[in-house]
Amino acid sequence: MPPFRVTYWTGIWEPHREGISKEVAWLRRELSPGSPVVSFTPQSSALLAGERVLRLNVARWIPLRATALALERTGRVTHVFGGVGTGHFLYVLGRRPTVLTVVVGGPPLATEAYARVDRFVAESRELQRALIGAGIAPERIDVIYPANDLSTLADIPAPDTERFTVVFASTPADVADIDARGLGLLIELARARPDIDVYVQWRQWGAVAEARRVLESRQPPANFIVDHHEAVSAADIYRRAHATVCAFEAGTGKSAPNSVIEGLAAGRPALVTDTCGIADLVQEWEAGVVTPRSVAGLAEGVDVLRARYASARQQARRLADQEFNVTSALTRYDALYRKLATR
Question: pLDDT category, 214, cuts 50, 70, 90?
């Protein structure tokens, strides 16, 4: 365990629901227990003393600057999680060696805005290319795929039914992101393919009632199934599905979605559009099918995936073990922390 403290800076703090904060909580627990987390978020401001988390609403710029001034010096390393265009933290931090883990795409900042970052971590090769395009020297970038403890998802048998089910478990908190997350496409996929089920595990956060109203206005078919149960475990989600599906719009959501990674660990191959940040890995490992971002593309992808489901299922687990390996990710982050802490 590193003999120093890391301060963590991130967005939404929902470690039981949201992928980025889940990853921050996991890294802190394994490498720097007790370190503080600052969450700059659309959520209300609050001090979560038991979790050692300070949650600041995004309108609270002055408190953020004051927190950065007071808190950053208590650690030896500053670790920021955000997007290619995450500027708010970079403008107020930088008093300690800083690592920026880039988890989502988006328009880049001016090159000089990244001057306070000592090391970049890209969670996909797509994000690595985006950083290079923003003027970051390749030697300053590490590619470390996100990893959590996936051991509870191993050896989950495929559903004992011939009716093929794909699961989407990355629903947005903001109703405005429903189509960007691909839910409109998935409704139309269900309509075009009445022989399959599209199962959506809806996270109970954000404007849930408004999201229900918007979805109902689309008049989805009966085989588009939305589950609003809060207490469903990850294992239970993947136990009822044959594959995961992800049709994010380019630059939307995590480049390496947690739901896809968890599905791979559970032996669930991925049906992803070519806009997904880890589509290259899915294709290279033959751990699923990559399609154009269209209803026709996804519908055809279902047939391809069903035709070679057994081999894709094996490759899904192998991909998770190799590229999203928890020990490898921790070792690399530990080495990165130690190197930065000596500066």
Answer: very high
Range of the domain at 62: 6-147+325-341
Q: Identify the residue whose tokens are 């530990």.
A: 334
Distance separating alpha carbons of residues 329 and 88, to the nearest angstrom: 26
Residues 89, 66: contact at Cβ < 8 Å?
no
Q: Which of 300, 284, 57 lies closest to 189, judged by CA?
A: 300
DSSP 15-62: TTT-HHHHHHHHHHHHHSTT--EEEEESSPPEEEGGGTEEEEETT-HH
Identify whether residues 107 and 18 lie together within a single domain: yes
Of the candidates 233, 249, 183, the one whose C-alpha atom is nearest the C-alpha of residue 212 is 183
DSSP state at residue 202: -
Q: Which residues contact 10 (CB under 8 A, 6 or more apart)?
A: 20, 21, 24, 37, 38, 39, 40, 80, 81, 82
Using one digit for the tens of pLDDT, what is the confidence trace for 60-84?
A: 999 999 999 999 999 999 999 999 9
User: What's the domain count of the chain?
Assistant: 2
Q: Do the domain assignments include residue 1?
A: no
SS3 content of the chain, % helix, strand, coil (to 5): 40, 20, 40
Per DSSP, what are the bridge partners of residue 290?
272
Burial code (b: 16+ CB inside 10 Å, e: under 16) for 89-101 equals: bbebbbebbbbbb
Does one domain contain both 129 and 222? no
Residues with Cβ within 8 Å of 292's Cβ and at least 6 positions away in sequence, in order, are 273, 274
Residue 279, in any domain of the structure? yes
Q: What would the pLDDT profile of 135-167 be if each residue is shown by its tens digit?
A: 999 999 999 998 767 777 877 888 888 899 999
**Is 189 part of any domain?**
yes
Which is nearest to 215 in space by CA: 251, 247, 182?
Answer: 182
Single-letter amino acid, residue 214: V
Cα(253)–Cα(171) distance, integer angstroms: 10
Neighbouring C-alpha atoms within 13 Å toward the C-beta of 144: 27
Name the phi and psi angles at 118, rounded to 5: -85, -35
Q: How many residues does the chain have?
A: 343
